């Protein structure tokens, strides 16, 4: 996130609204006060930063909560991550989405980022290739259930999602 965007979001009072831990992949599903949401994979940080070593325990990882009125997510023992770090990671990892649901452009970008073809993701999500094509071209809106399934697939949950 560039400095100007950070200042703009800070001045607008951006905060965390919801955080759901996904310990299997050391990920957090995050929702911000502006409606944007995404999946933040924290595995690299958990593995490399000594201050986050306790988060390597999946059970401990689930004990997160929003703290300081949405300024950060925290765990027992004074471990925390600020909203702007999570926002930056969601942006950097390509999972940050607008509050309006997943757009056709976001769906196509997600397919490319994850290495899925329309045929392979149709099988994984249980949709016809024709319907996946409609989602990716904007001829049909991407349902919320598909957005959530994409986040789950990205986090490594659900069916075997071999490409």
What does the model show?
This protein is of the alpha+beta class and 163 residues long. The chain folds into two domains: 90 residues, NE0471 N-terminal domain-like; 51 residues, 434 Repressor (Amino-terminal Domain) (Orthogonal Bundle). It contains eight helices and six strands, in the order H-E-E-E-H-H-E-E-E-H-H-H-H-H. The strands form two sheets. The chain has a three-stranded antiparallel beta sheet with strand order 1-2-3, with helices on one face. It has a three-stranded antiparallel beta sheet with strand order 4-5-6. The longest helix has 11 residues. It is globular and about 50 Å long. It starts with a helix and ends in a 9-residue tail after the last helix. The model has no long low-confidence stretch (mean pLDDT 87).
Any idea what the shape is?
globular
- Architecture of the largest domain in CATH? 2-Layer Sandwich
Helix content: 40-55%
Question: What is the name of the CATH class of the largest domain?
Answer: Alpha Beta
- Rg is 17 Å
What is the string of helix and strand elements? HEEEHHEEEHHHHH
And the CATH topology of the largest domain? NE0471 N-terminal domain-like
By CATH, the superfamily of the largest domain comes out as NE0471-like N-terminal domain
Distance linking N and C termini? 31 Å
Number of strands: 6
Look at the structure and give the mean pLDDT. 87
User: In terms of per-residue confidence, which ranges show pLDDT below 50 for 5 or more consecutive residues?
Assistant: none
What is the domain total for the residues? Answer: 2
Number of helices: 8
Summing up helix and strand content along with how strands pair, one would put the structural category as alpha+beta
> Which strand order spans the largest sheet, edge to edge or round the barrel?
1-2-3
The proportion of residues in beta strands is: 15-25%
Major β-sheet annotation:
3 strands, antiparallel
